[in-house]
Amino acid sequence: LRRTFGGFAAAALLLTFAIASMLTSRMYRSELEIWRRSAAVGAEPTALMNLALALRGTDDAAARETFEAALKKAPEHVLGHINFGLFLIDHGETVRGIEELQAAIRSAPNWGQPWYWWSLSARKLGFGPNALEGALKAARLDPGTDRYRYLAARELIMVKRYAEALPHLTALAQIAGPYSDAGYLAGYAHQMLGDLDAAEIGYSQQLARDPSNVLSLYNLGHVWLTRRRCDKARPLFEQALAVDPKSAGAKAGLARCPIDP
């Protein structure tokens, strides 16, 4: 905004924040009231679970008690075990949190969702093999769920099982949104397997969506460098450095690629 309108803009912004804060506060109290009333009239345990989620982050002690009350009434409630497990892990109670996530898996061993959250939590806690196991289980049980396939692909790439990751990535590369780096990951997997033609396709697909994707720029540059085509590689390294001047991969590529190939 221009300087002359700065004061008016600031006042309008403060008013907007005040209104938003008021509405959020009303919505939050209303949500709590809904689930409290539902729990009071016996719409349990789902109402208790939702009440616990609404309390989380504002009154954690009450949230914990509500989670426990809900699970006491419904010991096999899968989502209850998942949410309580995540809550406990976030609060540093790792062992008990893991026990809750494992209880969710025991309650629904053939459903991908508890395995998915177990994988994410295991990765967060540094349990790599468990993270991989959970991701693969989730993707195998519910192959139509894109986030499970994406997680499985990333976990497989982390352990260098590139060929197994590719079927997931090939499908996800056609989808926009949260899996928009699937083209890059597919290109990387192909490159690690020595298939430069397929790697070029993957990186090119990624750059068609996101021209400033630094990893795709300099990795595609290295594909051309491997082919001894510095005329193709150098512009890609330069583009990567224009986006990220600290890119070590692009700098390394330029160091190997003379100005006049």
Question: What's the structural blueprint in terms of helices and strands?
Answer:
Layout: H1 6-40, H2 46-55, H3 60-73, H4 78-90, H5 94-107, H6 112-125, H7 128-141, H8 146-158, H9 162-172, H10 182-192, H11 196-209, H12 214-226, H13 230-243, H14 248-255
What descriptive keywords fit this protein?
76% helix; mainly alpha; disordered N terminus; 261 residues; elongated
Structure report:
- The two termini are 48 Å apart.
- The chain has 261 residues and is mainly α.
- The chain is elongated, with a radius of gyration of 25 Å.
- α1 runs antiparallel to α2.
- It has 14 helices and no strands.
- It has helices at 6-40, 46-55, 60-73, 78-90, 94-107, 112-125, 128-141, 146-158, 162-172, 182-192, 196-209, 214-226, 230-243, 248-255.
The amount of beta strand, in percent, is under 5%
The percent range for helix content is over 70%
Terminal Cα span = 48 Å
Low-confidence stretches: 1-28
Mean pLDDT: 85
- Number of helical segments with 4 or more residues: 14
Order of helices and strands: HHHHHHHHHHHHHH
Q: What Rg, in angstroms, do the CA atoms define?
A: 25 Å
Q: Estimate the global geometry from the Cα principal axes.
A: elongated
Characterize the largest beta sheet: strand count, sense, and whether it forms a barrel. none
By helix and strand content, what is the structural category?
mainly alpha
Strand element count: 0
